[in-house]
Inverse folding.
């Protein structure tokens, strides 16, 4: 996968390039908004990672300009500005995702890869499969080894997100934002409770556990 990283902090950009490179991705780095525009216009990228606060041209106006020119490359905004109005502004400008600093590098990699997969599919999936676990998004049904599993609406949303990120470590922040639509940590055990209920439903009675806790990182659903 070919990525454009627009980040004026050389140390942060270097860390991103190293970690993304370890996952097999090629990175082109630009250190300001004008350089980012030139790089985007000079080559094709699968995903762009754009810092919001940049010299010469800020990330928001850079992405707005790209969208006006017809560039629909998925964009992940990075920013120390984490208020809801800042996130909304970034998304309305044409961003596809928004990650607040400081962030875990594993989460950045996961979000970049998720944006790339979303672009590759180009169509809405109606059936998800992870190993012997199946989810019918239209019929709102879940089965494992043909056995129907009854889930509450929030459990269904949680499992859908985990299945879409199968094999990856999913952080608590990702779950709060994507499943509960919280852009802050409510300081409750709501995630732990729902993970425990979901685990008892999809793993209990089967010979192998699919939903595991990744110490210090979050959770992972594995085939």
């Amino acid at each position: 996968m070919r990525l454009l990283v627009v980040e004026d902090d050389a140390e942060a950009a270097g860390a991103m390039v190293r970690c993304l490179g370890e996952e097999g991705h090629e990175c082109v780095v630009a250190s300001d908004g004008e350089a980012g525009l030139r790089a985007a216009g000079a080559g094709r990228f699968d995903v762009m990672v754009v810092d919001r606060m940049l010299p010469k041209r800020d990330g928001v106006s850079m992405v707005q300009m790209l969208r006006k020119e017809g560039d629909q490359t998925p964009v992940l905004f990075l920013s120390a500005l984490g208020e809801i109005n800042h996130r909304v502004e970034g998304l309305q400008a044409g961003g596809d995702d928004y990650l607040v600093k400081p962030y875990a590098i594993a989460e950045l990699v996961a979000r970049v890869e998720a944006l790339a997969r979303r672009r590759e599919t180009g169509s809405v999936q109606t059936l998800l499969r992870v190993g012997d676990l199946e989810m019918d998004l239209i019929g709102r049904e879940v089965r494992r080894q043909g056995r129907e599993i009854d889930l509450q609406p929030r459990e269904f949303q949680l499992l859908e997100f985990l299945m879409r990120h199968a094999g990856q470590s999913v952080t608590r922040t990702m779950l709060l934002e994507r499943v509960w639509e919280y852009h802050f940590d409510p300081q409750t055990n709501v995630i732990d409770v729902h993970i425990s209920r979901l685990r008892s439903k999809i793993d209990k009675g089967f010979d192998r556990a699919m939903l595991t806790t990744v110490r210090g990182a979050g959770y992972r659903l594995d085939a």
Notes: The CA atoms of residues 158 and 179 lie 6 Å apart. The chain has two domains: 2-121, 127-221. The first strand starts at residue 2 and ends at 6. The first helix runs from residue 10 to 22.
